[in-house]
Amino acid sequence: MHFALPPRKTSNPPPYLPRSNRLPTLRRSRLKLIAITGLFFLTVIYLLTRGNGHPKLKKRMPTGNPPVVLVTVFDEAKYGKGYLDAIKENRIQYAEKHGYQTFFANIGDYDLKGAPGSWTKVVAMRHALTKYPECHFLWYLDQNAFVMNPQLKIEDHIMKTAKLTDLMKKDHSVVPPDSIIKTFAHLTGQDVDFVLTQDKEGLSVGSFIVRNGEWGEFFLDTWFDPIYRSYNFQKAEAHALEHIVQWHPTILARLAIIDQRLLNSYSQGNKGDQYRDGDIAVRLVDCVSAGAQACETESQRFTQQWRTSFGKF
């Protein structure tokens, strides 16, 4: 059997040809073009921000009209009309007393791409920002809760800078009891755009406040990211939030955790701090797992109370 041999190298190679100097010339031309373009954009940025003695451009601040939007998501297929009407009446009366607005959404209003319906709260908050772009704050409050103290205004009770500086828990474990990720110790109220509480199980997403602004939009968009919605977290958006704040310093740096009774008291004390007269709101957390009828039954002892309080204010 014969095998083909590789061709021999010629004994008379072609004469050496020097490399063309065209490539370096082209390279120099491109570098020059890039440099000129970069200088142009830097000049434009300078003129827009500092040139001719003009001050830096500042982002537009909301006017505060309305000061607060109270957001609630309803499950009309699960709860009776009488119960839901009482919740809506509670929100509307409280909002009217302080010049706030309400934003009501329903489970099923948005395409969650198969995610649990509890994610509706996040997209509803983002929708409310679009509808009320001039508000200062959004307060999300679950459908299993009542505003109980009509005298307390969110912007004074919690979100005033000096007040929030005193209320926020610093160097505090984000997820109880002993998370190694803790809130920043150096933050003040003016640094905070997201306020919530904890209960005995973790971060509580049944009542929380988001400040309107670029960061607030970024935060809600991040929380609602399809990656988190598609991941099988045991408690859906609640556990997704715990993941986000522990792994993303950009979120943690704008977060404040405050005492539960300031924003999110529970009707029973087995899962968190129990409601006392004077607290701003009460949530009927135990009734949720027991069924819709249980929530309607438990709500009756608070309905007359808040109506009486609102009548005095």
TrEMBL record:
Transmembrane segments: 31-49
Pfam family, one: Glyco_transf_34
Protein name: Galactosyl transferase GMA12/MNN10 family-domain-containing protein
Family: Belongs to the glycosyltransferase 34 family.
InterPro entries: Glyco_trans_34, Nucleotide-diphossugar_trans
GO MF entries: alpha-1,6-mannosyltransferase activity
Location of region: Disordered: 1-22
Highest taxon in the source lineage: Eukaryota
Gene Ontology CC entries for this record: mannan polymerase complex
UniProt keyword annotations, A-Z: Glycosyltransferase, Membrane, Transferase, Transmembrane, Transmembrane helix
BP GO terms, sorted: protein N-linked glycosylation
